[in-house]
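Q: My hope is that you can spare some time for a protein that puzzles me. Underneath my words sits a plain record pairing an amino acid chain with its backbone structure tokens. Those tokens are not coordinates but codes from a learned vocabulary of shapes. Thank you; the sequence and its tokens follow:
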Amino acid sequence: FRIQVWGKVFFKRAAEGKHKFLRASRNDCTIDKVRRKNCPSCRLRKCFAAGMTLGGRKLKNTRPFQTAEETDSSVTQKQQDTSLVIVPRIGIPRMQKFQCQPLFLAVLQSIEPDMVYAGYDNTQPDTSASLLTSLNELGERQLVRVVKWAKVLPGFRNLHVDDQMSLIQYSWMAVMVFAMGWRSYRIVNARMLYFAPDLVFNEQRMQKSTMYNLCMEMQHLSQEFQWLQLSQDEFLCMKVLLLFSIIPVEGLKNQKYFDELRLNYIQELDRVISFQGKDPTHNPQRFYQLTKLLDSLQITVRKLHQFSFDLFVQSQSLSVQFPEMMAEIISAQVPKILAGMAKPLLFHEQ
């Protein structure tokens, strides 16, 4: 990438600033030396995607990722002149007069994957085989985007490469279901399952797909979003936590760094809740509700893992097609989860 196209000065001002650039409808504007000023949103997004970073510079009010030592020292200093609110549920110290960190949320928003089409032929009669095959094809396209999204998440590339692979291979289903629940809530008011613009499941398609009960559980997720009036900032933080929600039983190569990284994202969710809450006394309840929702999703995801594996085993007799990448991850990784070789990281005791 040419530095003249992305521009260090533009990146510094955009990343440090509190501008909320409007995204283009398709979020795929051409950014080159001539047209670099046409869309600041896509320009900033591609800066992050190209790996540009503000490095170790200390930014005013924008420190979303600190080491444990930095956090401890900063908290000790602030205790001298500022009262702290201690959140009993996870022991996160937080300033009473906290200002939400625009850089962190801007990064999460800028790297959100674009909506993917399933390529489903809606002019043909629905059959269980056609619906399930289309879901598999859509799943592979979305999986590619999940990988690209994870690779540009703040802090993710600092994980051991084996840990990166494990997290994606174990959590892809949870991340994709959560994103689908969000689309269903925002686009069709949780009345249907919005897998893709060209693949929306109504009651009839749920029945036809042979996974009606699972569809109902996924629809319940989007209805929970509606009941909670989940905000986009909450959604963005929660989706990252789902990426970090299941790990090998024996742990990761660099478990300490992973634990710190996950805690940082938990803190960001806590700060988002604090920033947008009108009544501070309701913040602990909100945090409990959102983390309880994340825990409950693990039950549905495990059922989906079992359904996907059973479907893969019977795919030939059922005339259901699996693309190569989906076939590989379902045949090689899903059995490990079902066999108990991976464990979910829950916020609450079951």
Summary: The chain has two domains: 3-56, 108-344. The chain has 15 helices and six strands. The longest helix spans residues 283-313. Confidence is low (pLDDT under 50) at residues 1-6, 55-100.
